[in-house]
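Database export, one record per block. Field names are fixed; values are copied verbatim from the stored entry.
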Amino acid sequence: MNKRWRIEILNQLLDKYERTIAYKNGEQPDRRIMLQFYGASKSDFPVYDIDNHFVRTEVNDTVISMQKQGLIDFDWFRGEENHIIKRLWLNMEHIDDAYQAAGRQSAKILAFAVIRELEQEIEMVNTEWIISYYSETKEYIQAKFQFGSRISADEKERRNLYHMLRFIDGNSFTSLTERVFSEKCFGDSKFFETKMKSALLSIMRKYVSREMADAELLQSIGVSRYPEPLEMRGNILVNGNNMGVFESGFCIYSNDIEAVNISFPNTVTKILTIENRANYFAYQQADDELVIYHGGQYSPAKKKLFEKIAAAMPENCVWYHWGDIDLGGFSMLLRLRKEILPSVYPYRMNRNELITFQTFTQLFPKDYAEKLRKLSEQELLSDCRECIDYMLKHQIKLEQEAMLT
């Protein structure tokens, strides 16, 4: 018996078995789990070449041996007995032996094991997008007893993923380069880039943002190829130095943020964070304003900057946020209110702007609408519901660049 043929045949049969509804329901299949070898319009095992004596006899000997072990049964092609196999099928009475002989675990048993792993990981993290990823992956596996592309069937790869997401959730860093992150997380400066980066980005594209570039996604968790520039302009004192002398603005690099002390002259009455870079540069700020480039979902380093600014704001100063009139823009406003300052006001994020720039609005699909509707239920966005209700009614959104026209 040839081990290669035995494993190939059993794996094809077991794959076919695990795709059946009976398998998912824990029932006995009412039809044979079968592979056609010869004589049908299409062979399920095309490597069975009847004109290749060596391959044919090896496969035949392997199938006969598997039948004697009770793993499968088969038929010869009529008139070609002891020469050409027509078809073979699993012996369901010895299905456990078939799994053992194939050197694999039942997908159902493995699925239950991974479900338990995911339940344990959910209890260990607090980050919403990580919990959403684990929860939806768990639901998918429970429904299908398959992993798809959601998580690896390889235990070692899963353990590395869990470890990385726990490390990210711990959020004990504000800014790390990719290689330093990899060294701290895995003890190998190149492991993240070569083994884990693509998996993390795939998860974050679905559960953080589909619009953000890869570098922005990583930056939002404090990981970047180079230190992140935190850009702003206006009258602000950084370590006692008035940075308002730089008309075009200045930046603090993320790896320096811990050493920065922020204060303001009392003349500053308005702080404005702007999501889009074009709008940030186009905005004409007054002498009493500090304007900050917000970008996408902010990183731990930018969060630290915002916290320092909020703590140092003069008593009569008001914070505004100008973002896209879309799901991302309002989620950024909500996050600022939750994590930085509850009184952050929306700037030009209202129904009138949608009406004024209606020719530049874009339509959005039903799944987007559902996420937007769910976001609008947040009590901290109650003052934005008129705008969001208008968006939902007309299924439109507006990028803030349109307001520059």
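Remark 1: The chain is about 45% helix and 15% strand.
Remark 2: The radius of gyration is 30 Å.
End of record.
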